[in-house]
Model the fold of this input.
Amino acid sequence: MSSPSFLQSLYIFLLFIPLVTLHEVAHAWAAHWLGDDEAEDEGRLTLNPLSHIDIWGTLILPVLNFVLNHSLTPLGWGRPVPFTPDERQPRLQMVLFAVAGPLASLLIAVILTACRTLFLAPDSTWCNLLDTAAFISGFIGLSHLLIPIPPFDGWLLLGAFFRLPEELMNPGNVWWFVAFFVLLSFTPLLSAIGALTYYVLAHTEHLILFLK
Done:
């Protein structure tokens, strides 16, 4: 298999930015709905990508993934949304906050797949755009749900169900930077998440065609 070209990588990256923005906006609205105004005070209830870009997660990591792995896998994240759960229901609120972003990304992927299946001819030039955007959004949702290191949402879910050492809860801990580079080199995990994304979207299409 040939390595992806620079233009292919740029295409993926330009789609990744607005889709990861929607992911973070979902977190921000979840925080607002749960009664925490930190996200609103920081101006995160907006669709402006500049409010959600993280230097490492949105810019540097995707580039490193392409350079080190020659991969088009859209691994990355936006600037983490602040959230302090209510002391009366901290576990439930953290779970709801954590799953808001991944579920929004997966829903967007399903909607894009449905639009392509229902409204476009198979030979339409727009099919590739919608398929690629659906895959990126689905991959964002599943990777954030399944990878248990910060700032992925799987880490928030892990912290909601288990008591973790305080030093581990700090995303600035040097061990998390080591974990990032291990993750970058552990392509079977990323390939498995990519395969799961394709599986979900393919069965979504089959279900829509069955119900059509």
Observations:
- The chain has a mean pLDDT of 88.
- The first helix runs from residue 6 to 33.
